[in-house]
């Protein structure tokens, strides 16, 4: 079992695969090439051919697509323990851009190292396939949110998902979590205007459910928020214990 | 290299991994448990715990989520060579339902067989991770489509994506393809009403770009459609040749 001294990625994958000492060591070795990136400057551009992925150790990143008319759709956020650009390495081109929201620390993983690791430690390949499946399940939830949920439920669902993701890597508590996202990030994620985002957050606060202010999300009525969002965390698969023993 | 006598899944994965004779044999053995399902009856229900995935051999399937208010968001369609419920097996619960659109043939793959295959043939695990990444890239495109593209471009992008996916498994031609989807499928996929879908299809036809009628999509001006949709097939990664030699 991974302990707090391990990287966030190791903690996350350990939720799915009971990693051996050898596998733990291989995973930690993938973190050797440490890099720092400053907030607000793209790490990877849409359309760039991808030679490397990154494992996020600290900080938050957003991945987004720009349309030709200049509008931006944020596809997802990455928090510690998440891969950036794993899909881009496998598909050999980045279908989106990555921008650090705060200064971040990440490990660079070359495509060849990644493919070599998969070949030598197949249980790690399976664990990373699990993580990719979980990421896909989140994008599906965002798709359903934009397609079919009203603005309040969409926001509530998004905040609950973030809480669960952070909890898996030991960040935040059941009271809330620190969150560097602005109203513009929320707007471009949820398909709302910034003004609408503010209105929704005010409603959620005045209903006594949740407050998002000064970089902090605070839950007042977790159960009520879950009900509003129809939030079922099964797609995040983080309570059942390892599938691969 | 996989030939036409191989399954559609083998043809698809061969676009990414140059599979050995042993790997080809293992992949074909995953197809042993053949099953038939009739159109219109759910194969897997949202929330069902998932013991098996399916590999689609022939026919079309849609995967969707129902909201509590009864509205349906179609997340994706599966065509021959696609996995159904791979994510559900890994996440141990199905986050959506699967419904065959026509009568279909599929191979049932038990979770244990799948995990065993990954452990013994890691290059197949990598190839399936590639396929999962490609599926995720498609969901991202749908998210961007619903969030940011206008209805004409959304429809055009969707039809072009389907054409590319089918071409990879040897179905259809550059003139067009057979397509069993109804206006209701299109509406629930693209976040439009059925009336709006009809209007969009009429506009595309009258602009001389594409016709979708009587179960057949026919391209009249492929280049014009690509331009309207801003369609860049890079995210489907099917022209560069195998990454894993």
TrEMBL record, chains A, B:
SMART domains: cNMP, HTH_CRP
Keyword check for Ligase: no
UniProt KW keywords: DNA-binding, Kinase, Transcription, Transcription regulation, Transferase
Classification via InterPro entries: cNMP-bd_dom (IPR000595), cNMP-bd_dom_sf (IPR018490), Env_Response_Regulators (IPR050397), HTH_CRP (IPR012318), RmlC-like_jellyroll (IPR014710), WH-like_DNA-bd_sf (IPR036388), WH_DNA-bd_sf (IPR036390)
Source organism superkingdom: Bacteria
Domain Cyclic nucleotide-binding: 15-90
GO cellular component entries: cytosol
PROSITE patterns, alphabetized: CNMP_BINDING_3, HTH_CRP_2
Gene Ontology molecular-function annotations: DNA binding; DNA-binding transcription factor activity; kinase activity
Domain called HTH crp-type: residue spans: 149-223
Protein name: cAMP-binding domain of CRP or a regulatory subunit of cAMP-dependent protein kinases
Species in which this protein is naturally found: Roseovarius pacificus
């Amino acid at each position: 079992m991974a302990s707090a001294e391990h990287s966030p990625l190791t903690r996350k994958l350990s939720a799915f695969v009971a990693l051996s000492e050898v596998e733990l060591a291989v995973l930690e070795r993938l973190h050797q090439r440490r890099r720092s990136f400053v907030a607000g400057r793209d790490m990877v551009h849409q359309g760039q051919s991808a030679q490397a992925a990154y494992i996020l150790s600290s900080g938050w990143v957003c991945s987004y697509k720009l349309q030709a008319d200049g509008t931006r759709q944020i596809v997802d956020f990455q928090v510690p323990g998440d891969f950036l650009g794993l899909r881009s390495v496998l598909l050999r081109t980045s279908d989106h851009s990555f921008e650090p929201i705060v200064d971040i620390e990440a490990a660079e993983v070359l495509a060849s190292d990644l493919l070599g690791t998969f070949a030598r430690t197949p249980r790690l390949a399976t664990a990373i396939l699990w993580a990719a499946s979980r990421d896909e399940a989140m994008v599906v939830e965002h798709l359903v949110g934009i397609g079919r949920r009203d603005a309040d439920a969409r926001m509530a669902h998004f905040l609950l998902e973030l809480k669960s993701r952070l909890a898996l890597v030991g960040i935040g508590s059941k009271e809330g979590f620190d969150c560097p996202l602005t109203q513009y990030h929320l707007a471009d994620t949820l398909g709302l205007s910034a003004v609408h985002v503010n209105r929704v957050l005010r409603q959620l606060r005045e209903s006594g459910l949740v407050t998002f202010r000064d970089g902090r999300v605070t839950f007042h009525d977790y159960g009520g928020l879950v009900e509003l969002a129809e939030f079922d965390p099964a797609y995040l698969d983080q309570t059942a214990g390892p599938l691969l023993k």
